[in-house]
Amino acid sequence: MSMLDEIKAAEAAAAQAKKEATLTSRNILRDAEEAANREAADMITAARAAARETVAKAEAHARVKAKDLVAERARDDRAVAEAAEAKIPEAVAYIVERVVV
Questions:
Q1: Residue 59: how many CA atoms within 13 Å on its side-chain side?
Q2: What string of DSSP letters covers 41-82?
Q3: Which stretch of DSSP H or E encloses residue 98?
Q4: pLDDT tens for residues 28-85?
Q5: Alpha carbon distances (Å) from 63 to 11, 55, 73, 94, 100
Q6: Angle (CA) 59 63 64, round 5°
Q7: Which long-range contacts link 29-38 to residues 24+ away (Cβ below 8 Å)?
Q8: What is the pTM of this model?
Q9: Model pLDDT, residue 101
Q10: Which residues make Cβ contacts (< 8 Å) with residue 58, sequence separation at least 6?
């Protein structure tokens, strides 16, 4: 084989190696992108689940707070009503005094 043939063969081998390297790098890049996309989708799913859980906890806490607030307001209303009821005889006596006199 002449030196020119050897150079041509080396150039051909180098071109083939370059093509294979390019193909291999494309495959590696594609695989990495697919893995990254799967991982991102998993992270999004986990974040959504965590958000749903947080919202559910907040709603449960809000229901408890609302129930406590309603109970507190009901106690306050009963106290005001009882105080008003205690003054009914006095109010009736005042009205009767004004009407009769």
A1: 6
A2: HHHHHHHHHHHHHHHHHHHHHHHHHHHHHHHHHHHHHHHHHH
A3: helix 88-100
A4: 999 999 999 999 999 999 999 999 999 999 999 999 999 999 999 999 999 999 999 9
A5: 77, 12, 15, 45, 53
A6: 120
A7: none
A8: 0.57
A9: 62
A10: none
